[in-house]
Description:
Elements: E1 2-5, E2 7-8, E3 19-25, E4 29-37, E5 49-50, E6 59-65, E7 70-76, E8 81-88, E9 93-96, E10 101-107, E11 110-118, E12 128-135, E13 142-145, E14 163-164
Parallel strand pairs: 5-8
Antiparallel strand pairs: 1-3, 2-13, 3-4, 4-11, 6-7, 6-12, 7-8, 8-9, 10-11, 12-13, 12-14
Amino acid sequence: MILSVGHTWSGQPLPTPAAALTLSAQPDALRVDVEAPYHGDPRPSGPPGAFWKLWEHEVVELFLLGDDERYLELELGPHGHHLALQLHGARSTVAHSMPLAFDAHIAGDRWRGRATVPRRWLPPGTLRANAYAIHGLPGARVYSAWAPVPGPQPDFHRLSCFRPLPDPLWPR
């Protein structure tokens, strides 16, 4: 299943997608492949791996929503940084900075990454999702979405804006 980030956060169509995320169910994991433009934003200050506040850098994000407002937020960056959070209710973090198998490579003006997410991290009843691409320096950030999140400012935790997944991740 492919989620193409093709709108501004508020819903205007983009001339070309800001990112594409391919989701592939494995027996015990969800594989997430990212393909996106590389904008050359400054890299995070720490080494590749789990990085708090990765959302302040160039990043592609995937949110998977399940039952009872439980959701998983994955943030993946072009330099190999990542952040995985489990939440219960909008912005209510239950766990964060979990160790994630993630690899990223920059080639010219594009980057690709692959994450392997343990199936046990996914919220029960995962049926809805959203994906985002963010880049730019403070004051000039660009926010793009798979499913727009209209409002006075970008808010990626508007769970009511998440779309049903085109296909179930695992047959029930």
